[in-house]
Amino acid sequence: MLTDKEMQERTLQAFRGLFPGEIPALYFAPGRVNLIGEHTDYNGGHVFPCALTIGIYAAAAKNDLGMLRMYSANFPGSSVSQIPIGPMVKEKKDGWCSYPKGVIWAFAEKGFEVTQGLDIVYYGNLPNSSGLSSSAAMEVLTGTILLDQFGWTMDGVTLSLLAQRAENVYNGVNCGIMDQFAIAMGKKDHAIFLDTADLAYQYVPLPLADNGVKLVIACSNKKRGLADSKYNERRSECEAALAAIRTARPAESLGALSSAEFEEVKDVIGDPVKIRRARHAVAENERTILAVDALGKGDLAEFGKLMNASHVSLRDDYEVTGIELDTLAETAWEQPGVLGSRMTGAGFGGCTVSLVKEADVEAFIENVGRIYQEKIGYAADFYSVTAGDGPRRLA
Description:
single chain; alpha+beta; eight-stranded mixed sheet; four-stranded antiparallel sheet
């Protein structure tokens, strides 16, 4: 993987090659990994993500052409997208450009209208469709560019909410707030304990290095897109389950229920599939609270056990894992030095995240990689990562 300096230089090189004579500013927004608390963010529960030190870079400068000219260096050979300043109309041909266009649209809704052209080149080292939130990183990055280029002021929470609106309304992906929030509010060597019901949050130190533990992400390399996956279906199932529960007792969200309270009222849901979906949302919220408590006590072993239980629930009750992610997690559980492993992100492909003793990381990658390729037929990619800061201007 390229270093941070190499990524910056390549981003600038790409910009200068396309837009010679302009002097761009350089920006970065991280990807994110969720340590525990999956599919709880749209169910009023808790999540526990951290921003990463890998993400998406961008070089940007204003132009006087009345055009947005955007290019991604991750798709070499593609043409520069040229979009007139004005209302952002979603078109099928947009592809990845729908994400920055959605942010410009969401900003305009709030009175932050782009009235001058911009040239932007993006270049990321996040695997596409990996579950590390490349789309949310691009959204938050675009918002960061707009704020800086036009001298606007906005706090990170507001930026994350506008980026989420861009994805929900403009791009039609009914995601929760976690991805955008974790990226916009990232803090080095910390994870964010976020209550998605009211956006109350606290930074929690990640004492991994002090305990000789590494965070290892395994990318399944199975491509998946949220918009055409069953993600929205899962959300609808949870909403239907909550509506049924409300006929028996008041409940602001599934995350507001304890497992004991859920067991008392689950039969009113009727549909066994929706019962399983709701049971995961309730239990996963409880696991997340317990996991953060365990981390605060320095009990990484207990944290790892809760990660494993999270994956089992996502596999059996929420059914969003699949053979690729199950192979990665279940193989990880068998390796020496592994404290815990689970799928992370929306599922249906993407990544697992594992806590691995530093001395065992090399063997972990070799063994899990070999078994995965033998069973699935193609290779997984592995990344040893650390928690990083949120979006920023670099130069």
